[in-house]
Amino acid sequence: MYEDKILVxxxxxxxxxxxxxxxEFYAEKGFQEPKYCKECRQARKASKTGERKFYTSVCRECGxxxxxxxxxxxxxxxxxxxxxxxxxxxxxEE
Length: 94
Fold this sequence. Notes:
The protein contains 3 helices and 4 strands. It is an alpha+beta fold. The protein folds into 2 domains: 5-49, no CATH class; 55-93, no CATH class. It has a two-stranded antiparallel ribbon. Strand 1 (5-8) and strand 2 form a beta hairpin. The longest helix has 13 residues, at 81-93. The radius of gyration is 24 Å and the shape is elongated.
């Protein structure tokens, strides 16, 4: 039913093979025909995830270093990992 197709990648403009098996899988899942070769798809995916930025602050409970994935601008303060775990455990007991 399906036959291998040669497609041109929209990213690198190289030809790549869209195999009969891949076509069948894409059809079953309702996916559109790929516009990028496997290497360009992987590169695009990696560029979207990127590196997460972390910020350093002072823990409001113990005064130790707190490393958080957001810029701590609130006057409420932040908790270090150890104090956060203690607070979660205490909240679970309530």
